[in-house]
Amino acid sequence: MEDLCTVSGLDPLWDWNLTWYTSQPDLTQCFQHTVLVWSPCVYLWTCSPLYLLYLQLRPHRGFIPLSKLCCSKTVRPSADAEPGTRTQRTLMWKGFLFASLLFLLSCLQSVLHHQYMFHCFTVGMRLKTAVMGLVYRKCLLISSAARQQCTLGEIINLVSADTQKLMDFVVYFNCIWVTPIEITLCFYFLWQLLGPPALAGIAAVVLIFPLNGFIAKVRIQMNFMDGRIKLMNEILSGVKILKFYAWEEAFLRRVGVLRDGELHALKKSQILYSVSLASFNSSSFLVSLTPSLFGVYVLTDERNVLDAQKIFVSVALINILKTPLSQLPFAMSTTMQAIVSLRRLVKFLHQDELKPDNVERLPHSTDGDCVVIEGGSFSWTSDGLPCLQGINMKVKTGLLVAVVGNVGSGKSSLLSAMLGEMERRSGFVSIKGSVAYIPQQAWIQNASLKDNILFGGERKESWYHRVLEACALLQDLDILPAGDSTEIGEKGLNLSGGQKQRVSLARAVYRKSDVYLLDDPLSAVDAHVGQHIFERVIGPRGLLKDKTRVLVTHGLSFLSKADLVLVMEQGQISEMGSYMELMDRKGAFAKFIHTFNGNQRRESSTPRDKSKTVNLTAMLAHCLCVCMSSSCDMSSASVQVMKAVNQDLDTEDAGKLTEADKAHTGRVKLQMYREYFRTVGLTFIMTIIFLCAFQQAASLAYNYWLSLWADEQPINGTQSDHELKLSVFAALGFTQGMAMFGTTLAIALGGIVASHHLHAGLLLSVLHSPMSFFEVTPSGNLLNRFSKEIDAIDCMIPDGLKMMLGYLFKLLEVCIILLLATPFTALVLLLISVYVSGLQSFYVASSCQLRRLEAVSRSPIYSHFNETMQGTNVIRAFGEQRRFVLQADRRIDNNQEAYFPRFVATRWLAVNLEFLGNLLVLAAAILSVRGRNELTPGIVGLAVSHSLQVTGILSWIVRSWTDVENNIVSVERVKEYDNTPKEAVWTLEGSLLPAAWPTSGNIQFEDYGLQYRKGLDWALNNISIDIQDREKVGIVGRTGAGKSSLALGIFRILEAAKGQISIDGINIAQIGLHDLRSRITIIPQDPVLFSGSLRMNLDPFDTCSDEDLWKALELAHLSSFVLALPQKLNHQCCEGGENLSLGQRQLLCLARALLRKTRILVLDEATAAVDLKTDQLIQSTIRAQFDDCTVLTIAHRLNTIMDYTRIIVMDHGTIAEMDSPSQLIRLQGKFYQMCLEAGLV
């Protein structure tokens, strides 16, 4: 036994799953080999003397015929002799022997069945985890074009729903081929008992199979769920934009449409499923009824008498037949669902992958050309139009190449072509050495700052420090609560745009790669910080001076220091050469430089004393605070919040941001059941209970009628009134079938009603949550609830309730029959009930906790998939696929470690329960033998044939009860977010707000103060400003000054701690959030688009005319681009707008603002990702179109606000200076110092 309990568990079938690789004792295997196998064997050995005694007493010793085994299983009462002679001829020991064999065979059946189920679940779990790993690996291989088609929502569905359906298929599949064998055997024994009329029963089975095959095929519908999960992922990714623009209700409607479609398909599916269940559960009646078994038997020959032997042996055989037939709907449904899931999986796995030969990777060499493209023509799809044509370039090792061009000219596409991310239609591409890539939108992991920079590499302290200093990150480390161990939120939520870009740059620099592809990393930082990074990292004297660098940039000051300049125009290289060569040619590039040279020179920074260098990177707005409050920049106040939150934490927990999904403990509270049934509604509940009781009463009457029929003594060898008996029999059976259909349908429809309300409540709770909620809650936690938990509420809870109620009432019927036949059975029933309730209580508590742990460990899988899909190009560029695959495997393993003991515990429970059921069978049989003189054959047959069902009934009751309780955990997790802090109401009823408010755009701050949490220092304090209508105000300040907090206070992303903000004389705290946010406009720094048409992205409420949309696009300088698209305004944007360049997305955000045309506009450096020419056009558009509006600009580049009427200089949450730019420069204070550092004075 010691050897058995220390088996390592190695299994070659699952070579990559760490769950099975352990040198420690595997308790689950020990449990399986002891409790599941050896304990029941005690029962078998105990009964073996009775078996040997029987062999000795038989006339023909040494074997038991198969027909006798059948007799023992069905307890064949001897009714062929008169009662008086029967008592004399039948020896009592034979009755006890048959009772013991009955118990013995039932125990053997239980052991074998649950060993089989254990192995099925094990194989199913391995299949599930293997498929999850396969999907993840495919995610790292699919091409960019395929990624646009395979949305994250679809992939989450593959991992959550489809893999589970494949696992269920493994468990139930064998029913499909075992069922025909069992049916054949049952009909064989019926033939022996009744003769040819037994064949008539096959007709009912033949009718049932095609019907249910058709139903199973029609039931499947997954498309709506895919669309809903995809949309939910986008909503969670862009929730900040929804709140700024007050678009929550528009997206609520979009989700509602998809959810209604999903529930409509589910309703149709459940109606068909109810037909399927009713037909299978009526199978025993259909097989027994005319023109089937009993009808044909009694009507074909008057001498055919239905006595107790024939009826109850037949009924027992039909009940044996009922088990496979009742499992068949599950098996057929599961098989059809698995086929659909398999097709979806195959479709995903057949998506195009990146071709390894797109780019030829060669070993690094210090001589010759490092990057070569000859005759290159590239497109995003294999059959699409080329985005880049006629590309010819050679870059020698160690050169700095600058790539410039207008928005949409193909600069980023050129880098993608070098990475092999684009389809190479013609030509040749080669790169020598390793590659590091810095994308235009920085990809940041939900990990510590240190882990983001090391990116799987080993920490080398001196090089690490040099990289941080060169990337201007040392000052940021000083203000973070845990330094470089501070956790960074998903997508870098708690970093500013500039900080994210510098972390992304530091990750690449730390790698010491041979080739660096930099996609405009300097656009997100201030001019002087950009100059610092260029000099210390990218430029001729930087850390990368010996590396090959391809830099996409809009900064003209860097071009003169580049060894080679490429000018992109409409997907082609229009000019190429050194800066001086291009200037001497006096072409389009030279004219462009001369036009903007003055501005650029003012913007450039001159060399200065490094001790005066100030990190202005975090001037960007909407850098989100890491506390339990709302968005703010990474200011001193936000850091104080993090420090306050972390004061009581251990050192290793300091800087922790996100909250892991928490598991409740103990059994599910009664409140959750009340909540679920309250949403179902009293009408449905009363209907369900009535129909269940009615169905079981019909079943009881049906079975009692059979026993009366069996007890009728034949007169002259015949029975009378066959038609009447068959009519009553048919009526009762039909009533039972209809009641079954009504019950299952009522439960299904009630479940759909509950699911609709619970999903709507979850969606509203999430969208009403403040921004701080989304900062600390990983998206995987939310997606888990919207996918797996809602799916459990949709399907699993109603299915569990159907089974539990059906079997509970069936058990009640069996108990009534047993008590009528053998009253002493009540004592056995009482003892078994006490033991079962204790067993169930112990088991359910454990099972619920395992279910919670399994649900909690599932969220990190979704978060990791989400994060990987967003950063696939970075992971591939750095060659880190293997490390990320191992991380995914580890998360999947953690999930299965909670799942495996759960189903092993279920098998333990089932073995115990079935043993108790077998004891009840033994008690009923022995008591029937002892009372053979008092009991009629009909009642004995009824009692024993029903007691044989108790084993399965008990097992299914606890299994279904456990399923319900386990899945009620989903209700618990969905309702969890009801009690989280919420924003103020969206719209106040009875609001007297004028329709045209604000009419002038006057903004007043009156002694305004802001705290991220009570007890902390002030983020803003004593702010008193009166901004007049049409005034243009720039807001500047150093890192942590609180300038973004001003804008966030206006939008009430953060609520006032004291004082008030008034717009046109109305206190904004006294109006609804949507009333406020829909009347003012912001152009954010991060341009967010949603999947759908351009029209929807511009106007989700569909209130603007086409003329208005085209005018806005024209003013945003996008009309020519949209006109060139085949579908114009109906052009479909991908998830996150990935099929548009970053500059085009920013221009679309400008078009949104032009459409809203409110009296107040807040600008957050909305032109960082566009070229200087487009930037100038945008600035002129803003000045012209918003001339009559109040404009607040959170300044990033100071030259854009030098013509504003006033400048507000923030410092530590207070106003340090406020006046016109010229006056502030004359004062030579803080603003003058900032202008000096930026080279503007």
UniProtKB/TrEMBL annotation:
InterPro entries linked: AAA+_ATPase, ABC1_TM_dom, ABC1_TM_sf, ABC_transporter-like_ATP-bd, ABC_transporter-like_CS, ABC_transporter_C-like, MRP, P-loop_NTPase
Transmembrane feature ranges: 35-54, 91-110, 169-191, 197-215, 679-706, 726-754, 811-836
Annotated ranges, domain ABC transmembrane type-1: 98-337, 688-966
Main location: membrane
Subcellular location: Cell membrane
Catalytic reaction annotation: leukotriene C4(in) + ATP + H2O = leukotriene C4(out) + ADP + phosphate + H(+)
CC terms in the record's Gene Ontology section: plasma membrane
EC numbers for this chain: 7.6.2.3
Membrane topology (UniProt): Multi-pass membrane protein
Top EC class, one word: translocase
Stored SUPFAM superfamilies: ABC transporter transmembrane region, P-loop containing nucleoside triphosphate hydrolases
Alphabetical keyword list: ATP-binding, Cell membrane, Membrane, Nucleotide-binding, Repeat, Translocase, Transmembrane, Transmembrane helix, Transport
MF GO annotations: ABC-type glutathione S-conjugate transporter activity; ATP binding; ATP hydrolysis activity
Domain annotation ABC transporter: ranges: 373-595, 1003-1237
Family (UniProt): Belongs to the ABC transporter superfamily. ABCC family. Conjugate transporter (TC 3.A.1.208) subfamily.
Protein name per its UniProtKB record: ABC-type glutathione-S-conjugate transporter
Lineage: Eukaryota, Metazoa, Chordata, Craniata, Vertebrata
